[in-house]
Amino acid sequence: MPQDGQPFQFRTVGDGTGVDYTGTFSQEEVQLALRNRGMPLEALRYSVTPTGLHYLLTHFDIPDVDTASWRLNVGGLVSNPLNLTLEDIKTFPVRSSAVTMECSGNGRALWSPRRLTQPWLLEAIGTAEWTGTPLQGVLEEAGLSADAVEIVFTGLDQGVEGGQVRHYERSLTVSDAIREEVLLAYEMNGEALPPQHGAPLRLIAPGWYGMASVKWLGAIEAIGDAYDGFHNRRAFRFLQGPDGEGEPVTLMRRRALMVPPGIPDLLTRTRVLDAGLVPLIGKAWAGRSKVVRVEVSSDAGETWADAELGESVSPYAWRPWSYEWLAKTGSHVLCVRATDSEGEVQPLEQDWNYGGYANNGVQRVDVIVT
Amino acid sequence: MPQDGQPFQFRTVGDGTGVDYTGTFSQEEVQLALRNRGMPLEALRYSVTPTGLHYLLTHFDIPDVDTASWRLNVGGLVSNPLNLTLEDIKTFPVRSSAVTMECSGNGRALWSPRRLTQPWLLEAIGTAEWTGTPLQGVLEEAGLSADAVEIVFTGLDQGVEGGQVRHYERSLTVSDAIREEVLLAYEMNGEALPPQHGAPLRLIAPGWYGMASVKWLGAIEAIGDAYDGFHNRRAFRFLQGPDGEGEPVTLMRRRALMVPPGIPDLLTRTRVLDAGLVPLIGKAWAGRSKVVRVEVSSDAGETWADAELGESVSPYAWRPWSYEWLAKTGSHVLCVRATDSEGEVQPLEQDWNYGGYANNGVQRVDVIVT
């Protein structure tokens, strides 16, 4: 395999600005949309997303990892470097938790101009029951130094990005990494972690957008400075153009989504349903915060009514909501929005950024009632 | 829910011809690409596709079926109509079989002009181990009449297509339906059938494109004439324009695919790898026929060399192949093609049709060797 750092240039997609202004999509984006996998929004009906329906973003390729020879290296600023088999990791305390995860690019393709990469609309979400061990215990076993500032997680997946060969690699600050909910996970929904979700071992960072939960973990390294790698410093930043430093993308912004009611038109996915009382249901989440209010609109966000809130199956899982809508004959645009425990309300439209990150503008569902 | 037959018209996508001539993609197609799920081609390394990586085409929505109250009705030209629970169906003889399934639209988006619907490139494939009971035994139990000509399978999924509300519904001739490999399946890869693959019960018609394997079965009806429904008579036909009768799409055409070697560029998915001996691997299949030859080209199909063939895990599963490629520095286009037991060779380019069905033109993989 090529070495990390080796430079490559490929053909230009679009006009070379990295974003699309035409409102149409390129074959390269469609290719990504077909490799990556959204959760069809009718699956919002499930508290825990059935296996095989959770969203899936594979940054490079799904690597071919042999679990028998695989090891997790824990090194850097530690007094007792570790080299662990999966069986070793299973001797640490076991913890299971339902966690809602959303891709940081969810909503990207609803913006114009649109960054030329995975063109998510609203389906890059899911909730799974993850089983593993708290990262904190493994770092303790390794004797994490008081000088450590950040923890770097290196995936075994490799590809070319930003003109160079790289592994996928992200860091968390020590204080974020040692939170009790952060897991090294080896099971998903009660089964061995499947290859596409990071087998044999992945990080789960509840509350964060999915980019933090590094898959196919090969190494964990404690370092004494702020990490300077590509996937923290260049990618996943709020920018207004291709250059600059900006702010990092971190926790999931508040958002509610609904199961589109009725039945779909095959191509446009416009919904059709009969007049009368229509149960609307869905889920809402807000990073590490709690969703305290969900409102529904049937007039494209002009007026809002409170939905009823249910209870989450875990502190880091989405909260169910429901609303009885009296549907009258005609065309409607249904919307839903969440408010979190900090009092922040999900916006009708979110401010644009160059990378197309964290667009939590409200869902719009076109409905025809007959 | 609206009634089958109720007419609806929706906004026009594109120029109204039903196909795209621009080479760019619409948001409606991207929306479908994000709902439906391709198998990333690196998963061709597995004989049986891991759960959650099999391709998935959901024609309308995934319906919310309550297994406890669900029944399978078997009626029409039978002497003993049946109304079966899932537990009843599990008392019939159990059969498991690994079956390769490909969507009839696989390859559609490689053609120009391109039909405006799900824009598959090459990833609409997968192989699963299905467990259920042969349909034949259930039809015998129902006392299938000698007057029966076709068997109609009705799914519980509903939507608007061709301007009308419909259920998804397809038929097989009696002779195709009573073949021993045709299953009513309630398990996939050893687990209960997941919602998105047709729970609680689906048809599995090995050798056919996926449209024949009706999901979320509600009813099976024996009829005395050729079935005249939309999904047999209008959709899934080889046509040169929007009108006409054409020939039906039936069994999967011969095709070989490879795992793209090396590592990818993030956006273009161009492959990068080091010079030297490179193991190329993949799978090949051919409807009900056997693949007898697989050839590889590293010069875009100018010259071909024989790959080594392995054995299928079942008669209806894809056949593995491998080839040691001596990769030299430079740019290459890798191709692979299958020949079946009838001596038919997969074409470099397949003849176009309006619906974008059964495009088995050979895969092209752009590779840069350093």
Structural account:
The structure is a homodimer of 370-residue chains. In chain A, β16 and β17 form a beta hairpin. In chain A, 8% of the residues lie in helices and 35% in strands. Chain A has two domains: 19-248, Oxidoreductase, molybdopterin-binding domain (Sulfite Oxidase, Chain A, domain 2, Alpha-Beta Complex), CATH 3.90.420; 255-369, Immunoglobulin-like (Sandwich). Chain A is mainly β and 370 residues long. Chain A is built from five helices and 24 strands. Chains A and B meet through α1, β7 and β16 of A and α1, β7 and β16 of B.
Which regions of chain A have little confidence, pLDDT < 50, spanning 5+ residues? none
Beta-strand portion of chain A reads 25-35%
CATH superfamily of the largest domain in chain A: Oxidoreductase, molybdopterin-binding domain
* Chain pair sharing the greatest interface: A-B, 72 and 71 residues
Number of domains of chain A: 2
Query: Which structural category fits the helices and strands of chain A?
Result: mainly beta
What's the number of helices of chain A? 5
Biggest pleated sheet of chain A: 6 strands, mixed
Mean pLDDT of chain A: 97
Oligomer state equals homodimer
Number of strand segments of chain A:
24
Helix fraction of chain A, binned, reads: under 10%
- Fill in the CATH topology of the largest domain in chain A: Sulfite Oxidase, Chain A, domain 2
CATH architecture of the largest domain in chain A: Alpha-Beta Complex
Shape verdict of chain A: globular
